[in-house]
Specification:
single chain; mainly alpha; 7 helices
């Protein structure tokens, strides 16, 4: 059940021409990263119960693991571009960033607060 729950909704976050590809092509790396992270955060918040149930890698199936790898690749590309532009902290690690965003999504339903917390990554 975890394999297929929300897969259709997650695909636009990772598949061309998904937000990662179209946002990075827009030319504003920090804006592209933030927009994609907001989409990622909104997705997690909308699937709060599922996100809490799927913690760690112990229960990950091949499909979930593949999706996580795709999310990591997309986020890495956006983060690298924002880092090269000097728009985000140089010491950011993509796995830490995704963990932070997941935590924000699960900790608050207030989009304004979530946005403020997300801006902590800015340089």
């Amino acid at each position: 059940m975890v394999d297929h729950a929300g897969i259709d909704e997650r695909q636009p976050l990772v598949d061309p021409p998904g937000p990662g590809q179209s946002l990075s092509a827009a030319g504003a790396p920090a804006q592209a990263l933030h927009e994609w992270l907001r989409l990622f955060m909104d997705h997690i918040a909308s699937k709060r119960d599922l996100a809490l149930a799927v913690t760690g890698d112990s229960g990950a199936t091949a499909l979930v693991a593949q999706w996580h790898a795709s999310m990591l690749d997309t986020a890495s590309g956006l983060l690298d571009a924002a880092r090269r532009a000097g728009d985000v902290r140089a010491d950011l690690d993509v796995r830490d960033l995704l963990t932070l965003v997941r935590g924000i999504a699960l900790a608050t339903a207030d989009r304004t607060q979530a946005g403020r917390l997300l801006r902590l990554i800015d340089r």
